[in-house]
């Protein structure tokens, strides 16, 4: 199923899981209703959705760094929801802890 969601400016932050740097939605921000509704319809916490983000940027900055980027909620065939960022675009803003 293809989602008809647009891109939104949201903050993502780095964290560590299983000895690997990952990205997640940063807390304390307004999440667009279309993302909240899609996650709720699938009984998924939007802060737990996997994120596609530049590996270089994840490792070039300390854990806890926040990146303001354009993200889009999409679904991967057989893989569930994914917050997609265009890895070819630079972040709008970067804030290190």
Strand content: 35-45%
Shape, please?
globular
Q: Please provide the ordered H/E string of secondary-structure elements.
A: EEHEHEEE
Number of helices: 2
Main beta sheet: strand number and arrangement? Answer: 6 strands, mixed
Q: Structural class per helix/strand content?
A: alpha+beta
What is the mean pLDDT? 91
Low-confidence stretches: none
Total beta-strand segments: 6
Number of domains: 1
**Radius of gyration from CA coordinates:** 13 Å
Could you give the distance between the termini? Answer: 38 Å
Helix content: 10-25%
Notable characteristics:
97 residues, 6-stranded mixed beta sheet, 40% strand, alpha+beta, 2 helices
How do you describe this structure in short?
The chain has 97 residues and is an alpha+beta fold.
List the helices and strands and how they pair.
Layout: E1 8-17, E2 20-25, H1 33-41, E3 50-52, H2 55-60, E4 66-76, E5 80-85, E6 93-95
Parallel strand pairs: 3-5
Antiparallel strand pairs: 1-2, 1-4, 4-5, 4-6
Structure, explained:
It is a single chain. The protein has helices at residues 33-41, 55-60; strands at 8-17, 20-25, 50-52, 66-76, 80-85, 93-95. It is α+β, with helices and mostly antiparallel strands. Strands 1, 2, 3, 4, 5 and 6 form a 6-stranded mixed sheet that branches.
């Amino acid at each position: 199923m293809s989602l008809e969601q647009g891109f939104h400016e949201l903050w993502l932050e780095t964290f560590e899981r299983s000895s690997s740097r990952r990205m997640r939605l940063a807390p304390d921000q307004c999440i667009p209703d279309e993302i909240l509704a899609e996650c709720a319809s699938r009984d998924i916490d939007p802060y737990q959705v996997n994120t596609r983000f530049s590996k270089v940027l994840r490792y070039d900055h300390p854990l806890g760094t926040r990146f303001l980027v354009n993200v889009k909620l999409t679904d991967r065939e057989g893989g569930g929801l994914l917050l997609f960022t265009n890895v070819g675009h630079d972040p709008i803003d970067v804030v290190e802890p």
